[in-house]
Amino acid sequence: MKCSNWEKMKNAFVATIPVMAGYIVLGIGFGMVLRTRDYGVLWALAMSVFIYAGSMQYVAIDLLTGGVSLITAALTTLAVNARHLFYSISMIDKYRNQKKKPFLIFGLTDETYSLVCSDAAEKSKDSSSYYFLVTLFDYLYWITGSVIGSLLGSLLPFRTEGIDFALTALFLTVFVEQWLTSKNHLAAIIGVVSSVICLLIFGSDHFLIPAMLLITLLLTLMRNKEGITNE
To answer: Where are the domains of the chain?
Structure first.
């Protein structure tokens, strides 16, 4: 029995409530910080609509106000978002025949990735609609939060120190949610242990890319081993 459009939207919305809570707060923080640098609501709206990269948008504020070159901006963007290159590979099969694939690729953030890879996505009666609606809702949450933050920043005096910690808090929320809803915690353990090891070896400024490479290698080996075992 197929789900009605209302039921599909309801299921996707319920799944994205934790992300909504984080994206609205984080988006408001971004809008406020951007406003303190004299960039108004149109800038907040345009950056969230066309860039849609939470951590990178925070970094972009300093790039805008620092007058850096295009090459520096491009390399910084690549470094900050390098993790997307690794986890997006696992979505090739899921998104291969999707009609809305360009938007799904554009909207694949860390939090959206965690939802489309969850048990709820696998159990969904219409995975294509689930992927699209989850991606769309998350996208709209971020845009809404950014605009609200910019408007509040123009009306209320507000100190922005420490507000970017909301991004870390959101990652922790998503991680805990995945841990509680998943029966197999091996991938999560690999991610945490690999990150800690690389942090100790390379330091806080350079551990991200080595950690992603190590995680990708270990998960690939684990997947290959499971494939051999199943055969």
So the answer is: 5-183, 184-231
